[in-house]
Amino acid sequence: MPEGSGSSATGGGPRTLAEALRARGDEELAALLRARPDLLSPVPNDVTQLATRAGTRASVVRALERLDRFALQTAEALAAASDPAPYGTLLALLTGDDGDPAVEAALPVALASLRRQALVWGGEDRLRLVRTARELLAPSPTRPSPTGLGPTVSEATAGMSPGRLQEILAAAGLPTTHDPVSAVAALTSLFTDRTRMAALLDTAPPEALGILDRLVWGPPYGEVTSNPAPPVRWLRDRGLLLPASTRTVALPREAALHLRAGRAHRVLEPVPPAVEPASSYGPQAVDSAAAGQAYTALTTVEDLLKDWHEGGPAVLRAGGLSVRDLKRTAAALDTNEQLAAFWLELAYAAGLLASDGEADERYAPTPAYDEWLELPVAERWGELAIAWLTATRTPGLVGSQDSKGRTLSALGPDLDRSATVEVRHRILELLAALPPGTAPDPQTLLARLRWERPLRGDAAGGAKDLRALAATWTLSEAELIGVTGRGALSTHARALLGLDEADRPDGPDVMTGGAARAGADTAAGADTAAGPDTARGGAGQEALAARRARAVKALAPLLPEPLDHVLLQADLTAVAPGPLERPLAETLAVLADVESKGGATVYRFTPASVRRALDAGKAASDLHAFLAAHSRTPVPQPLSYLIDDVARRHGHLRIGAASAYVRCDDDALLGEILADKRSQGLGLRRLAPTVLASQADPGTLLEGLRVMGYAPAAESAEGDVLITRAHARRTPPRAAPTPVPDGPPVPDGTLLGAAVKAIRAGDLAATVVRKPAAVAGRPQGGELPRTTSAETLATVQAAALTGSAVWIGYVNAEGSASQRVIAPVRVEGGFVTAYDHTADEVRTYPLHRITGVAELADDAT
Questions:
Q1: pLDDT over 90 for what percent of the chain?
Q2: What is the rounded distance in angstroms from the CA atom of residue 443 to the CA atom of residue 533?
Q3: Rg (Cα) of the chain, in Å, rounded?
Q4: Which of 9, 125, 674, 734 fits as disulfide partner to 354, beta carbons 3.0 to 4.6 Å?
């Protein structure tokens, strides 16, 4: 009988998975659908379909990947046991002959988790692993079992000749029999009898015992030649090595279990490994360090987008940023390429950066960037932190290769990894479980992650799996953006994650329940793969906004106040002892070049930087007034002389369009330019005493004369000086990239309630007991009922009068047939209005589309 079908058992436990699910309460069904949301796409018609879908390979693989290590080991032990297996047998396979109190305490929790996910069903005396899971975890010559166990004696001797069986029995000292079934049973009994098996092995040559030692923990298969060595022959003659193929032998499972003292696993991990602290600091020191990193993150993103203010690099044809442009960006940010990729991806995830979509497609800031700049500092950090928490983009993969050997580029199309968000949130939860101010030991953190998801390895980074890499990247990125300080989780990060007391109705341990959580919620698939809300049960955008507001409130007092002054020095530098107010910072960035950053920013004034300010429309008097107003120290004379000297020469030469020309009232200066050998490439010739013409365009001529040490100014067609300002380039409005979910999202309570009702209603229609047909030849079983129009009308009218329910066959306008249980309310005009138990709503059905009707049996209601 198929695992997902069948009717209710008349006695004892359930006979099928469908029967086991049908016996569950609504809350238990909802827990199954919450743990395995892929079963809801679409909502199953009834419990039988739910059971069938729960046994499909794709769904079972996904469920197994979300088991913790001990729950997985429990499933592996069940796969190695007989089907069905009593609880005692399962416990013996896990604890062995010596027993293990930790395993005995953890097994009920793991078994409950497997039951909740419909991977295990049946009573304590008849535990059954879902057939698909058994096939995935059971041993075979091409796919050894995770336990390292081989085939059973019965499986290994299938097809063996009776004569060969007699030889094995005789060599093992067992009575011979011509019945193959009895022979296999006798050999199995020998291998499972501790006393007799020990006596047999006492007679084995030492070399034979060495062979068994190599095979006992797997793999249990070995190759043999046509003339094997005496130790191998001794083992083969007594059935301790049975043929798996013409050149391969296997150690029988029963013999291996004896050698293992009854244990299916060499090492059991019933309790999750603890996350050990590496160092501890005061919470205030952690918050201060995190706040400093948060401000640095903001300035880095600003510097990046300011560098691309007039348009960034071109977009590759396949999407993403070229390696050369990534190197240039890293040099501009004074960092390495991997960190530059992280800042690019963070700005992209926050919707501050995108491609412009034009024919010559380039990257540029979005309009949202200008709005972001107007926010208070703490709120800007909140936007970046939320983008980082929810993004499935994985910048750590930049520079690696995909499955087709193509190099993954920053801002490219193939960087989404849905597992990254789950790992990121789990890492932060584990950090929150430590005492405030405590930084974890990374190795114990990785060990805990491996315990929680042992099968979720993803070959994305060479030998290591993606989850381990993502955990390492998470720790680094959290420090970069100020979520952690000195490796410990900050107070404002706890608020952002919803881990502060105001958002923890179940007390401070609700997110950090240690082994209890790992043994239940984690195994049940309580993932955080769809963003921060899922970690708290899908609180929604309102809850997310509330958390962000609390995080901003906690961070704001820790951030430095913007300054309205700098300290001018005699070496033509200005020192900003902290962050500057935006108007001051923007003007100073034009007037001077940034020389160094850190706790204080050092700006250097040069002739080129002063000329840049003059080109932007500032006069020398404006620059003197600006410096005097914003300097806490007197303006040094060298700086005043520098400004006056550049201003005196600025605009003395005028560049316009002929192709281009140079105009100057000082004909001697023009003669000097003509005589200079460096001007030969500009193609200059004198048109008049005060005018030179050039074959170069105005921009090239302007830059060429500046390289020669002059300070020319461009002029318009009317002869006015052109003021040079940066032209901001913005993309059209762009939405932030949508995170790629890891499978279907976890359903909320409303959807779960509706789905359970629909499944129950469909199950009622499919399994309801109907009265025997009174008309000869009426179809029975699962076919649609067939009655005449008069019978149909009379039956539904009677049901409407008595308020009873009936079972109908119905064919809709598209020709789809279905079975429904309805309670007629009104019959008129060729239509019956009834409450449809299958759809859980009132519907109206045309009588001519009802194929037939049958009354429900008395015990069906």
A1: 40
A2: 28
A3: 39
A4: 734
Q: In this predicted structure, what is the pLDDT of residue 523?
A: 36
* Token output for 635: 């303006």
Rounded CA separation 855/443 (Å): 67
Q: What is the pLDDT of residue 504?
A: 43
Query: CB within 8 A of 576, min separation 6: which ones?
Result: 563, 566, 567, 585, 588, 600, 601, 602, 603
End-to-end alpha carbon distance in the chain: 28
Task: Report the candidate in 846, 55, 61, 117 with the shortest Cα–Cα distance to residue 522.
Answer: 117
pLDDT of residue 505 exceeding 60, the answer is no
Q: Which residue's entry shows tokens 């902290």? A: 578
Q: Smallest Cα–Cα separation from 119: which of 183, 180, 174, 74?
A: 74
The tens digit of pLDDT for each residue in 99-144 reads 889 999 999 999 999 999 999 999 999 999 999 998 888 766 556 6
What's the CA gap between 736 and 391, in Å, rounded? 10
Residue 814 tokens, joined: 């598209």
**To the nearest whole number, what is the mean pLDDT of the chain?**
83
The domain over range 768-860 is classified in CATH as 2.30.30.100: yes
Residue 484, CA distances (Å) to 286, 289, 493 in order: 7, 8, 7
Residue 715 DSSP one-character state: B
Distance in angstroms (rounded) separating the CA atoms of residues 746 and 753: 13
Annotated domain spans of the chain: 17-137, 163-259, 277-558, 567-633, 654-714, 768-860
Given a cut of 90, is residue 720 above it in pLDDT?
A: no
Cα atoms found within 13 Å of the Cα of residue 819, Cβ hemisphere only: 22
Indicate the SS3 state at residue 641: helix
List alpha helices for 650-726, DSSP H. 667-675, 698-707
CA distance 467 to 449: 8
Q: Residue 489 has what pLDDT?
A: 95
The average pLDDT across 725-730 equals 65
Alpha helices in 203-262 (DSSP H): 206-215, 230-237, 253-259
pTM above 0.85, yes or no: no
The per-residue pLDDT for range 456-472, each reduced to its tens digit, is 754 333 335 788 899 99
- Closest C-alpha among 248, 257, 246 to residue 217: 257
What does the pLDDT look like over 280-323, one tens digit per residue?
999 999 999 999 999 999 989 998 998 888 778 999 988 999 99
pLDDT at 554 over 60: yes
Closest CA to 71 of 419, 455, 418: 455
Distance (Å, whole) CA 206 – CA 208: 5
Could you say which DSSP state residue 127 is in?
Answer: B
Would you tell me how many other CB atoms lie within 10 Å of the CB of residue 829?
Answer: 10
pLDDT at 515 over 50: no
Contacts of 834 (CB under 8 A, 6+ apart): 796, 800, 822, 823, 824, 825, 842, 843, 844, 845
Sign of CA dihedral 576, 581, 582, 587: negative
The residue among 270, 273, 2, 274 whose CA lies nearest residue 113 is 270
